[in-house]
Design a protein that fits this description.
By secondary structure, the chain is an alpha+beta fold. The chain has 12 helices and 9 strands.
């Protein structure tokens, strides 16, 4: 079977790649990272003008009407540039409302998400690293929600949160709702901060088909994080190759040493063959729903683990500089660590994939 990208998908990646290079080069990224600014208004405005905020919103409601594979391809470019911002989680919120909401709910919230005027995010994890819909326990009945969610991306910046509730359902809480309290939490990745959110009888609107939509939102999130990690791993590989060409030892670039050549080759050959894993997993989310859960779990487990190992190799090959704050390698290392942990660790998804495959 031939599996490749369409011209439109290649153009989508090329366009976003150009935007990242022009609007957030390493010097600008470093400024934002050092300042702890993850939601930059200028970057968000640029992305929304390109239509990125409405990737997963139907055209009839102001979006691009694209699928999970297209989202994953965009996330690869976000990871490659370590672009700060909520686009990944915003897109998951839009996907949840599109697939789980009634017509009235979709018409109410999706146009604002598509334009970027409303920033969305997802509140899924609970205490004990419970990410899966079957493990959610907070009460979302009778029009209010009570409980606590942890590791909520852009908890303080989001205008709208899609919240996972007991029974595997989904619902929406809007910014400023009574009883809603959001606070920061410690996180390594300054490009994507997380926080804790407490709901105390907070007004909440359950999505009509949230129970059916929740597994897709999880699987799409796994694909998006995997693609982001893939992009980060390749960025680290290229960055390390360039460093090895200019770093001299014993009067020669270290790239000429056989052991360094082997390590660089191992980095590239470890990550490149995994491209098909996240392509197929994202394709399955769009077209093969019976395969999506297992393929997404396999891709998340393998690629995010691989990305962290490549990040560690990059630190090592940068020598003493690689362990310092001044070295940009740390930005992508922390990006890879986030992708590995969010929505469940590789061990969790290896167990899931085995169970889904009846092993």
């Amino acid at each position: 079977m031939h599996f490749g990208l369409t011209e439109e998908q290649e153009l989508l990646q090329e366009t976003l790649r150009g935007f990242v290079a022009a609007e957030c080069p390493p010097s600008r990224l470093r400024e934002l990272f050092d300042a702890g600014v993850a939601h930059d208004a200028a970057l968000w405005k640029g992305l929304t003008e390109m239509g990125m905020a409405g990737l997963c919103v139907p055209e009839s409601l102001g979006g691009a009407g694209l699928g999970v594979l297209d989202l994953a391809l965009c996330c690869e470019e976000l990871g490659s540039g370590a672009l700060p911002g909520p686009l990944l989680f915003h897109s998951l919120a839009a996907l949840a409302i599109d697939r789980g909401g009634s017509l009235a709910q979709r018409e109410r919230w999706l146009p604002g998400l598509a334009s970027g005027e409303t920033v969305g995010s997802v509140a899924l994890c609970e205490e004990g690293e419970t990410w899966d819909p079957s493990s959610w326990s907070i009460d979302g009945k009778a029009g209010v929600v009570t409980g606590t969610k942890s590791h909520v991306p852009f908890a303080g910046e989001a205008d709208l949160l899609v919240v996972g509730t007991a029974g595997g359902g989904l619902g929406v809480v809007e910014r400023g709702a009574p009883g809603l309290r959001a606070g920061p939490a410690a996180g390594a990745d300054r490009t994507r901060p997380v926080g804790s959110v407490v709901f105390d009888a907070t007004p909440f609107e359950a999505l009509e088909d949230g129970v059916q939509a929740a597994p897709l939102v999880r699987d799409a999130g796994l694909c998006a994080l995997t693609a982001d990690a893939f992009g980060a791993a390749w960025a680290l590989t290229r960055m390390t190759v360039e460093y090895a060409k200019v770093r001299q030892q014993f009067g020669r670039p270290i790239a000429e040493f056989q052991s360094v050549k082997h390590q660089l080759a191992d980095m590239a050959t470890a990550i490149e063959p995994t491209r098909g894993l996240f392509w197929y997993a994202a394709y399955a989310c769009d077209h093969l729903p019976e395969e999506a859960a297992r393929q997404a779990a396999v891709a998340k487990a393998h690629i995010t683990d691989c990305a962290v190992e490549i990040a560690r190799d990059a630190v090592e090959l940068h020598g003493g500089l690689g362990f310092t704050w001044e070295c940009d390698v740390q930005i992508w290392l922390k990006r890879a660590l986030f992708d590995r942990a969010f929505l469940g660790t590789p061990d969790t998804h290896r167990e899931r994939s085995a169970a889904l495959g009846s092993y």
